[in-house]
Design brief:
The protein is α/β, with parallel strands linked by helices. It has two helices and seven strands, in the order ββββββαβα. The strands form two sheets. Strands 5-4-2-3-7 form a five-stranded mixed β-sheet, with helices on one face. Strand 4 and strand 5 (about 60-65) form a beta hairpin.
């Protein structure tokens, strides 16, 4: 896969439930596809690439956008989340296994498109 598109299963805002940032409001970007198959996986729906990304915006609107997402698609969606809810503290890249799409993620970060 090119570094210019990626598969995301869902995007939503919630509070971090584990780790050093527990209790902080995060925008979760859940990538689709995983090769690990951990016994303790709590998101089995994200194990495979899916045809659409399900989005739950802070204002209550829900949308489904086709996969794979382009750099511009993801950047625009992330920007809308932060515009609708400026209290979001962090962006969390989760999975599936995000590192299977490391070129896509790195491409965005290098361009400075996914930052708060």
């Amino acid at each position: 896969m090119s570094g210019e598109a990626g598969y995301v299963s869902e995007m939503f805002v919630s509070y971090q439930g584990e780790g050093a940032r527990v209790g902080e409001k995060h925008l979760f970007v859940r990538f689709a596809g995983c090769n690990l198959r951990c016994r303790y996986c709590d998101t089995p729906a994200s194990l495979v690439r899916v045809p659409t990304c399900e989005i739950s915006f802070p204002g209550g609107e829900e949308a489904a956008v086709p996969n794979p997402l382009s750099i511009a698609d993801l950047a625009g969606i992330v920007a809308r989340f932060f515009a609708e809810d400026p209290t979001i503290a962090r962006l969390s890249l989760t999975g599936g296994e995000p590192m299977l799409q490391q070129r896509f993620i790195a491409w965005h970060l290098l361009l400075g498109r996914i930052t708060k």
